[in-house]
Design brief:
There is one protein chain. By secondary structure, this protein is of the alpha/beta class. The protein is built from 11 helices and 10 strands. The strands form 2 sheets. Strands 3-2-1-4-5 form a 5-stranded mixed sheet, sandwiched between helices. Strands 8-7-6-9-10 form a 5-stranded mixed sheet, with helices on both faces. Helix 7 runs antiparallel to helix 8. The protein is globular and about 60 Å long. About 50% of the residues are buried. The structure holds 5'-O-[(R)-(carboxyoxy)(hydroxy)phosphoryl]adenosine and zinc ion (ZN).
């Protein structure tokens, strides 16, 4: 089965073609970073308008790159939520319309399920069951994954998502948007010991996160007046160490609690090199394995939506013509593979 996947939940326009026999045939991405960087964050209305402009040419390019004619597409998958409603509607409307015009089934994909299954696109893919750490701009989740659609939530954030904390801290430091890569870059020149940030909620049992305190700690740490480059680097370094350490502690605890041997990292923050290194060390030291997508499939992309859609479409799941997007949609509301959707 050959599936066209469309992602437009936030500020990246992604399109890909995935074939269940031959694997990923193409993937294209257009980033809107430059537009939103002017405002220091994503402006929903501008994101939706830009998706309108970028999406159709990207669909044509993805088909061309995959050497695929429209008649060879067997299904269309699009991100139906969670995300920005205007942005989601652009991808969903086009995806559903193309499927109707081509007379093939369509399916609305859960964005976080896309992230969660992204490591399946790699040569060495994890087998079920595993624990997944999903860390993006809007989510910080620890999930016990038995199979596609069989998810139990182990922990979530009580305030900011970890990506959000990276973005807000970067803003306080006068670094660019998005904050994650900017913090990581600045931290490379920093001294880890100059400031010791807290490791929130690690001193008590449980798997929930809280990241807003790290941002507050930064605000209280930043000296008044102009910041010199070394101070920015040192704060970025202290922040990154604390955020990564906190995630590693909670991942170890989640593996201990569930007895799982495999850990999957996905979502934009999963591109963070320090996090990848530290999780590798932790899992190897305890006889476990960690799996992550290549960095470009950690952040938003069409390939993960094409893949997740292909798994469910191949199992017979279908989206009715009268669909709507779901800006708020819990991962645990998804049915097991092949099941009926609420
Ligand atoms: O998954 P994603 O592309 O979009 C959402 O679904 O939110 O994640 C974006 C988030 C942003 O907060 C961004 O700052 C963060 O991922 N991010 C990173 C890195 N690259 C992206 N955070 C830390 N280190 C990175 N290298
Ligand atoms: Zn995402």
């Amino acid at each position: 089965m050959r599936v066209l996947g469309i992602e437009t939940s936030c500020d990246d326009t992604g399109v890909a073609v995935y074939d269940t026999d031959r694997g990923l045939l193409s993937h294209c991405l257009a980033s809107q970073v430059e537009i939103h960087a002017l405002y220091g964050g994503v402006v929903p209305e501008l994101a939706a308008r830009d998706h309108v402009k970028l999406l159709m040419p990207l669909v044509e390019k993805a088909l061309k790159d995959a050497k695929t004619q429209a008649e060879e597409i067997d299904g269309v998958a699009f991100t139906a939520g969670p995300g920005l409603s205007g942005a989601l509607l652009v991808g969903a409307s086009l995806g559903r319309s193309l499927a109707w015009a081509w007379d093939v089934p369509a399916l609305g994909v859960h964005h976080m399920e896309g992230h969660l299954l992204a490591p399946m696109l790699e040569d060495v893919a994890p087998s079920f069951p595993f624990v997944a750490l999903l860390v993006s701009g809007g989510h910080s989740l620890l999930v016990d994954v038995l199979d596609v659609g069989r998810y139990s939530l182990l922990g979530g954030t009580v305030d900011d998502a970890v990506g959000e904390a990276f973005d807000k801290t970067a803003k306080l430091l006068g670094l660019g948007y998005p904050g994650g890569p900017a913090i990581a870059k600045a931290a490379a020149n920093g001294h880890p010991g100059r400031w010791t940030f807290p490791r929130p909620m690690t001193d008590r049992p449980g798997l929930d996160f809280s990241f807003s305190g790290l941002k507050t700690f930064t605000r209280n740490t930043v000296p008044p007046g102009d910041l010199d480059a070394q101070t920015v680097a040192d704060i970025a370094c202290g922040f990154q160490e604390a955020a990564v350490d906190t995630l590693v502690i909670k991942c170890r605890r989640a593996l201990d609690q569930t007895g799982r041997k495999r850990l999957v990292i996905a979502g934009g923050v999963g591109a963070n090199v320090l996090l990848r290194e530290r999780l590798k060390e932790m899992t190897e030291a305890s006889g476990r394995e960690v799996f992550y997508p290549r960095p470009q499939f950690c952040t938003d992309n069409g390939a993960m939506i094409a893949y997740a859609g292909s798994v469910r479409l191949a199992a017979g799941e279908r989206q009715a013509l009268d669909f709507s997007v779901r800006p708020r949609w819990r991962l645990t509301e998804l049915p097991p593979i092949g099941g009926v959707r609420a």
